[in-house]
Specification:
By secondary structure, the protein is α+β, with helices and mostly antiparallel strands. The chain has helices at 3-15, 33-41, 88-95, 147-150, 167-178, 205-213, 238-244, and strands at 57-61, 66-71, 76-77, 97-99, 104-108, 121-127, 133-142, 160-165, 182-188, 194-200, 217-224, 232-237, 245-248. Helices cover 25% and strands 31% of the residues.
């Protein structure tokens, strides 16, 4: 066992194992308060750095259902191109959907495509021969009944690139976090008490992309009008993360 890994295990044993998170001092409206508690216990400062959390390892918290790899915006969005004259808000009203309760458009949920399959909004996620990840739109595949009036004429194309994660861009994102020493996850039991810590090997972009190709790692956008953040989450079900575990303590 490496010294860096032993330091993490010792810290988990001293500060986390056997404890239920005390969230009384955290904002109750903040969904990530449990993760912030864990970061504090493990001596990790909350930050948006795209680098391993501690000692060359990326830390993950126990979650319900899904765990996030990272919030990684695309290297290209169509609304950043002057060619189409499409602003960010207009993009969401054309290619997203309207939330009547919140009275705003978003590019999240139903419009977001899965790998290799066109959805109702005419969008598909594809990986090209250069390992770029692309979200494409096809006017022909758009099944919305009002598409003729909704889609501007200059966007009524058989293939239109909405977003791209350039391979070099995404490789840097993935490998800066996960391809140093590896990753670890702190596990809770059914009573919400931390009981175990698990480790996984370093993950290269090629490894990670295999998960995307199989649909095991997926894009989960939360972009909405009125907020400048893109919320471009890449996630996987916990069952996939379980397959990556190599050591349990």
């Amino acid at each position: 066992m490496t010294k860096d890994k032993q330091i993490i295990i010792d810290l988990f044993n001293a500060k986390v194992r056997g404890k239920r998170p005390d969230l009384s001092s955290f904002n109750k409206r903040h969904a990530g308060r449990g993760g912030h508690w864990l970061e504090k216990q493990m001596g990790i400062s909350h930050n948006a750095s795209n680098s391993p959390d501690t000692n060359g390892f990326e830390m993950k918290n126990d979650t319900c259902g899904r765990t996030t790899f990272g919030d990684w915006s695309a290297s290209h969005y169509i609304f950043r191109s002057e060619e189409y004259g499409l602003g960010r808000d207009k993009f969401m009203s054309v290619f997203g959907h309207y939330n009547g309760k919140k009275r705003r458009y978003s590019w999240s949920g139903k419009p977001i495509p899965k790998i290799n399959t066109y959805n109702h909004f005419g969008q598909i996620l594809l990986i090209d021969n250069d390992d770029n990840i692309n979200i494409l739109y096809s006017f022909k595949e758009d099944a919305r009944p009002n598409k003729q009036s909704l889609i501007p004429t200059n966007l009524q194309k058989p293939t239109l690139l909405l977003a791209q994660w350039n391979a070099k861009w995404m490789q840097e994102k993935v490998e800066n976090k996960f391809n140093k020493s590896g990753w670890f996850k702190c596990i809770k039991n059914a009573d919400g008490i931390y009981t175990n810590i698990v480790f996984g090997d370093p993950i290269s972009y090629k490894d990670w992309l295999r998960g995307v190709r199989k649909g095991l790692i997926f894009f989960d956008s939360g972009m909405y009008q009125g907020n400048s953040r893109n919320y471009s989450q890449w996630r996987a079900d916990n069952s996939y993360w379980d397959l990556l575990v190599t050591e349990t303590y």
